[in-house]
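Changelog-adjacent note: as of this version, every example in the card shows the full chain rather than a window. The one below runs 46 residues end to end.
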Amino acid sequence: MNGRMARRIRDKHGEKFVKYATYLCQRGFWTRLFVAIFVVTHRVRK
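Full-length structure tokens:
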């Protein structure tokens, strides 16, 4: 597999990931995830 092909595949996947991330962002997924992580880490620290 040559570099150009790999780059094209990576770009395609990156684009898909960005679209998916923005979609999740609009759904308020990231804020919920962040809050969950925050709560868990604080619980572990105690």
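Structural remarks: The chain is about 90% helix and 0% strand.
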